[in-house]
Amino acid sequence: MRTVIAEDNPLLRDGITLLLGEHGIEVLAAVDNAGDLLAAVERHRPDVVVVDVRMPPTHTDEGIRAALTIRSAYPETAVLVFSQWVETSYARRLLADHASKVGYLLKDRIVSTDDFVGALHRVAEGGTALDPEVVRQLLAAPAVDAGLARLSVREKEILGLLAEGRSNLAIAAGLHLAERSVEKHVTAIFTKLDLPQARTDHRRVLAVLRFLNAERL
Amino acid sequence: MTDWFRAGLRAVLTAPFTARTWRGLGYLVSGVALGAPTFLLGVLGFVSAPLIIVTAGLPVLAAALALARQTSAYFRAPARFFLGWDWARPAPLPARGWRRLPAILADGTAWRALVYCFAGWLLRFLGAYAAVPMLVLGVLAVTFPVWWSFVPAGTFDTPHWSGTWRFVWQGALLLLALPWLVRLMVGADRLLIRGLLEPSRDSARIAELESSRAVLRDDAAATLRRVERDLHDGTQARLVALGVTLSRIERRATDPDVKSLAGDARGTVTEALAELRDIVRGLHPPALDDGLGVALSTLAARSAVPVEVSVLIDVRPGDATALYFTVAELLTNVARHAGASRARVEVRADAGWIRLTVTDDGRGGARLDGLGTGLAGLERRARALDGSLLVRSPPGGPTVVTMKLPREG
After folding, report:
1. Using CA atoms, how far apart are residues A75 and A53, in angstroms rounded to an integer?
2. Closest to B179 in 3D by CA, of B29, B34, B31, B23
3. What is the pLDDT of residues B161-219, one digit of tens each?
4. Which residue out of A84, A86, A148, A215 would a mutagenesis test of the B interface target, given it has the greatest number of B Cβ atoms within 10 Å?
5. Would you say B318 and B214 are in contact if contact means Cβ atoms under 8 Å apart?
6. Which residues of A lie closer than 8 Å to B, measured between beta carbons?
7. Is the dihedral angle over the CA atoms B228, B234, B237, B242 positive or is it negative?
8. Cβ contact (<8 Å) for A12 and B237?
9. Fold of A141-213
10. Does pLDDT of A82 surpass 70?
11. How close A183 gets to chain B, by Cα (Å)?
């Protein structure tokens, strides 16, 4: 896997570069601002971009804007955004236009290296990766969606894990369930949300989007 | 002759030659010329005042008042130059946008300034009208013996040169009286200015305190924001970098003891990061950087009760922080005590105020002095910001908490 990193803190930038190198992920460029990031993506066409939300010059949402630009201009490049804190509106902006190949994680998660590398692989393979904290906040939010309101506690829990980008197998392992029963729950979720029978992957993303949209601005 | 009598006599005799007299005279004369346009403004204002019944009078009056409000500095310049007087500018009008119209019509400062535009000029005109002829006649009369011989015989009723001395005495009396007239007029003008243009000492003091407190509040908000930045961009980044290094050690270590030690250390770093996040959230909610609307939506998303948020105005950073923490506390109350199924948060402008209302459809019965709700604390905080907090919560609900903060321009 080939990546470009955009992070303005040099300590962290070097740390991530070394870490990814040790996990056999090639870092093509490590830059410290959104402009250089876009230039690097244009030159290297990486599989995944790892980008910090807050970067110079304004230190607000440069990373999110750069991520959105990359997702629309380079469809083959996945984006994993890092934020210093949980901001559900960032996650919504990211997922509003591009339901796949995006991720939004707290910076803290880099410390849990396996989760971090796993999320990187997931988004590169076309999935999504949402921080558990983001998902927790979204789950705490009211379900105004009638379909969502019909979900049982267990189904909501599983939908939350779907939103994080987990596979059925991973969910089963996490909840100590058989993969078969997770599949049943997922099917029940699709039914309750009235999602048409089509390609399963697509329905997973749709379910997650319904879930995210339930939280209003 | 007693000492005070001698001193008084000297004062009377030297008064025409003091700088004070000439400065006063210069002030009166220049004031007539400089005050002519503002006098017209005053006339315009008072003519248009009764005309407001006809709609055309209203904008004219409002414009005249708005202009009159600005004349304080215009009058101050000559007063400072000639007499060394100084006074503070009036505080700016608190209202904004179209609300300026009703505000200016009800603004005492503007009306007083308009009265001064009118009355001040009349006073100075009167002063100059009396003082200038007094000066001219006085000087001519005192010097009459000198130029008597150049006047063709018969122009004045003074056939003999010795007769001219009578005029000298009269001229000298005029010139001796002139300084006192000037002082009287200038003194009267001073009283007018004090009453009509100068902000009263109390209101000047209040304005000063208000502005210094606003500065302090914004400073405090800016400091918290900087601390938040430092923690996020410095401390948090370092902790993450430390965690990354520990993770690499854990991965490379072949000794199982080292592996597990590194793993434990990494766990501690993760906990420290979670703690840091909570601390920062209490200091300065980073979401506030993206505006109050985003920040309140994030709060609402965290709430256990469905919350609808609408923020209809922009507010200053200091006020945004206050509103954010108030909403955070009120929503916690809603979730904990109200037993509500829905809540609404609204921030809107209300004349010169920011009005925050938090409504829920719960069981009501919330009281300012109720224990464990922190409403009393919120009320104290609102008052510290010159605002107010009102709780309307009949038994059975609904509960409406309204906070008002002054909206500064």
Report:
1. 20
2. B23
3. 777 788 888 888 988 889 999 999 999 999 998 888 887 777 778 878 888 887 887 88
4. A84
5. yes
6. 8-9, 11-12, 15-16, 18-19, 22, 54, 59-61, 84-89, 106-108, 110-113, 137-138, 140-142, 144, 215-217
7. negative
8. yes
9. Arc Repressor Mutant, subunit A (1.10.10)
10. yes
11. 29
ipTM over cut 0.90: no
Tell me the pLDDT band of B262, cut-offs 50, 70 and 90. very high
With 60 as the cut, is the pLDDT of residue B10 above it? yes
Q: B281 to chain A, minimum CA–CA distance in Å? A: 9
* Conformational region of residue A128, where left means phi above 0, alpha means psi within -120 to 50, and beta covers everything else: beta
Q: What is the pLDDT of residue B125?
A: 92
* CATH code of the domain made up of B290-406: 3.30.565.10
Name the phi and psi angles at B84, rounded to 5.
75, 20
Q: Count CB neighbours of B112 within 10 A.
A: 20
User: What 3-state class would DSSP assign to B363?
Assistant: coil
pLDDT tens, residue by residue, B290-348: 788 888 887 887 777 888 888 888 888 778 888 998 998 898 888 888 888 889 999 99
pTM (global) more than 0.80: no
Q: pLDDT digit string (tens) for A148-183? A: 777 887 888 888 888 888 888 888 988 888 889 998
CATH for A2-131, options being 3.40.50.2300, 1.10.10.10, 3.40.50.720, 3.40.30.10: 3.40.50.2300
* CB pair distance less than 8 Å for B301 and A140: yes
- Partner-chain residue, chosen from A8, A11, A144, that has the shortest CB–CB distance to B306: A144
> What residues of B are in contact with residue A87 (Cβ under 8 Å)?
286-287, 290, 294, 298
Instruction: Say how far apart CA B344 and CA B239 lie, in whole Å.
Output: 38
What is the Cβ-side half-sphere exposure of residue B252, based on CA atoms within 13 angstroms? 10
Residues 6+ apart with CB under 8 A from B130: B181, B185
Model pLDDT for residues B90-121, shown as the tens digit of each residue: 777 766 667 777 788 888 888 888 899 999 99
Q: Return the C-alpha torsion angle A18, A20, A21, A23, nearest 10.
A: 130
Chain A partners of B308 at a C-beta cutoff of 8 Å? 216
The answer to whether the CB of A98 falls within 8 A of the CB of A129 is no
**What sign for the dihedral angle of Cα A72, A73, A75, A76?**
negative
Single out the residue of A53, A146, A32, A66 nearest to residue B289, CA to CA: A53
**Does the beta-carbon distance from A142 to B294 stay under 8 Å?**
no
One-character DSSP codes across A63-106: HHHHHHHHHHH-TT-EEEEEESS--HHHHHHHHHH--SSEEEEE
For chain A, domain boundaries: 2-131, 141-213
**B82 φ, ψ to 5°?**
-85, -40
